[in-house]
Design goal:
The structure holds two protein chains of two kinds. By secondary structure, chain A is α/β, with parallel strands linked by helices. Chain A has five helices and five strands. Helix content of chain A is 43%, strand content 17%. The chains are: A alpha/beta, B alpha/beta.
């Protein structure tokens, strides 16, 4: 397979204690339907487990769904762990109930995009594709 | 195109409905008089003419102090009951200082670590007058014990305490996810509460069997009803197995449904729900007391229908939804706030939600007659369709061995996910219009104002917790936890020992850890 044909591998995770997984599961399904390989952790995962899984599964993108308001604390922790494990170049994106006033802080932590309620799954697919394919050529 | 029109759950809708759409219905046995079996038209003869529904806005955030202030504010604005939202650590049995509580303390509800927090939360609230609903499941025995302990301290006899605990653990495995222990052990805690309350807190609603969260996770109206009643059947069976008589506990079972925007389907859903429950209790469980057959329910407007775009539109959505709930005969109601797709509601938007209820109650005139849509060919036809289709799905779950078997095989969760994905695709294909999202969009001029929870709240909660741990009688705490451990390992009722633990100021996390050590923890099976 050429660089662009190998399926993109994505980790979708739900960190923290939030159990609302409707959005996360829809994303898993939509990414799979678009031809990506998706690992889904299920709910209630610690930042450590998520980063560990990302390393083991050798994913190219990590999407975290958080609806409980714990996003700043959890992304701070995940960003720390990614950097201490030298995981650079992985696409980090967020979904859930995340107020716009926090978007800047998340960007600073390395979150490339935030997909709130009403986002189209096709936009998410396109964003991941364009980022990862650029990284592969990079 | 018109031939294909359906309700949100896929029931065909004709251009005009005629008497023949209802020709298979018998008034007395399928519809009946309000207040009488099968209660299709309502559980009381006079409904809102005699007593309005309870206006119960769900709230709780930040700290017990802040939440207490919000409760007093809401009661002063004319709210008639409390509904407590707990944060996720409290719901999943972790203390505020546990590492997994990072970022979650005080976010989606109020943090409660010890009896001290519960006393603060309920300060100056007359528990003999105000009824309180608590959205709590895996840790329901602990929070109930805390509430009752505060009542005792206020000198109120337990038989005068009124309220509801959600205590519906089965739907947590299907949607929402705040379970701790495996289903079998969770069911034991549920029946411990039934038994304890039947003896000591007779006016307490021991469970609120909820379709709400399953619907929010993507279920259709039919799946919402069917999976709720399948869970209800499991609870009734468990209580009977624990030795209770059906008429001893069934009148304390209550329900919780969503109100979504498909107005007529939702109204028909509540009417069908009453008829199904009356049927199940009379025919399947041989209840004798009509109160055991009455479906009493709380309603909340649909969180998932709130859009982050053009948030003022949400006020219109919730008004239609609240109208459905009232026309459907709800006993209590929460109207969501317009800003909830972005964050917790501000005080102003929470007040607007209460005003929505008050306008429906006092200005619209819809309360003046009972079940005003009865006899509409369309509504009666839809009610019967929902009844029939729900019964088929309930039977399907029964054939799988019941709700718990279904949960263990991921049946309900997968069905709900399929519905959610189908709807998502319909929205993206613009077959389903969401105003402001996939049609009539416009750029937002400025970000909507939201109310963040101060991160200092978590800090103050942790400081308080460490003070309590330092000042309580730790030997007494140890002894009470040991006793709980031995009772949990036996078949005896766990609620009294949990009362002793909380009164010794043991924490929610410590009590839950004892139960974890005896029962183990549930592991999710994900099927997508």
């Amino acid at each position: 397979m050429t660089t662009s044909e190998r399926p993109i591998k994505v980790l979708i995770a739900k960190p923290g204690l939030d159990g609302h997984d409707r959005g996360a599961k829809i994303i898993v399904r939509a990414l799979r339907d678009s031809g990506m390989e998706v690992v889904y952790t299920g709910i209630r995962q610690s930042p450590q487990t998520i980063v560990q899984t990302a390393i083991q599964e050798d994913v190219e993108a990590i999407g975290l769904s958080i609806l409980s308001g714990a996003h700043i604390e959890l992304f701070t922790k995940i960003a720390e762990l990614l950097s201490s494990n030298n995981m650079v170049g992985i696409l980090l994106f967020a979904g859930g109930i995340i107020p716009e006033s926090d978007h800047q802080e998340l960007k600073r932590l390395g979150v490339k995009s935030v997909f709130g309620p009403g986002s189209k799954t096709s936009d998410i697919v396109n964003e991941i594709k364009s980022y990862v394919l650029k990284q592969r050529l990079g | 195109m018109e031939d294909d029109l359906t309700t949100a759950s896929g029931i065909p809708v004709k251009p005009i409905h005629y008497p023949e759409d209802c020709s298979n219905l018998d008034y007395d046995s399928h519809i009946g008089i309000p207040g009488e079996y099968p209660f299709t038209r309502g559980i009381r003869a006079e409904m809102y003419r005699a007593r309005l529904w309870t206006m119960r806005q769900y709230s709780g955030y930040s700290t017990p102090e802040e939440s207490n202030k919000r409760f007093h504010y809401l009661l002063n604005q004319g709210q008639t009951g409390l509904s407590i939202a707990f944060d996720l650590p409290t719901q999943t049995g972790y203390d505020s200082d546990h590492s997994i509580s990072l970022g979650e303390v005080g976010k989606v509800g109020v943090p409660i670590d010890t009896l001290d927090d519960m006393e603060t939360l309920l300060r100056d609230i007359p528990l003999e007058k105000v009824t309180t609903s608590m959205t709590i499941n895996a840790t329901a025995p602990v929070l109930l014990a805390l509430y009752l302990s505060v009542a005792k301290k206020q000198g109120i006899p337990l038989d005068q305490v009124r309220g509801t605990i959600q205590n519906d653990i089965l739907k947590e495995y299907i949607a929402r996810g705040t379970y701790i222990y495996p289903p079998k052990h969770s069911m034991r805690l549920v029946t411990d509460i039934f038994t304890f309350c039947a003896e000591q807190v007779p006016n307490w609603n021991t469970i609120s069997i909820s379709g709400y969260h399953m619907r929010e996770a993507g279920a259709t109206a039919i799946q919402e009803l069917a999976f709720t009643f399948s869970n209800a059947i499991e609870y009734v069976k468990a209580a009977l197995k624990a030795g209770l008589d059906v008429d001893q506990f069934a009148n304390r079972l209550s329900f919780f449904f969503v109100a979504s925007t498909d107005l007529f389907e939702e109204i028909a859903k509540y009417r069908a729900a009453r008829r199904i429950w009356a049927d199940i209790m009379k025919t399947k469980f041989k209840a004798k007391n009509p109160k055991s057959m009455m479906l009493r329910f709380h309603t909340q407007t649909a969180g998932v229908t709130l859009t982050a775009q053009q948030i003022d539109n949400n006020v219109i959505r919730t008004t239609i939804q609240a109208l459905a709930a009232v026309l459907g005969g709800t006993q209590s109601l929460h109207v969501n706030s317009k800003d909830e797709a972005l964050s917790l509601p501000s005080e102003a938007s929470a007040e607007l939600s209460l005003r929505t209820q008050q306008i429906l109650a006092h200005e619209s005139g819809i309360i003046n007659t009972v079940d005003p849509l009865a006899g509409s060919y369309y509504v009666e036809h839809l009610t019967n369709q929902l009844y029939e289709k729900t019964k088929i799905l309930i039977d399907e779950v029964e054939d799988l061995g019941g709700a718990i078997s279904g949960i263990e095989n991921g049946f309900q969760a997968l069905q709900i996910h399929e519905s959610a994905y189908t709807l998502q695709k319909a929205i993206e294909a613009e077959d389903q219009i969401i105003v402001g999202v996939n049609k009539y969009q416009k750029p937002e001029l400025e970000p909507a104002k939201i109310t963040p929870v101060e991160s200092s709240a978590a800090k103050s909660q942790m400081t308080k917790l460490s003070k309590i741990k330092a000042s309580r009688d730790n030997a007494k705490v140890e002894a009470s936890l040991l006793k709980l451990k031995s009772v949990a390992s036996s078949d005896d009722n766990t609620i009294e020992p949990i009362m002793e633990c909380v009164q010794a100021y043991a924490t929610v996390g410590e009590i839950s850890d004892v139960l974890r050590s005896v029962f183990g923890e549930h592991q999710e099976t994900v099927i997508i």
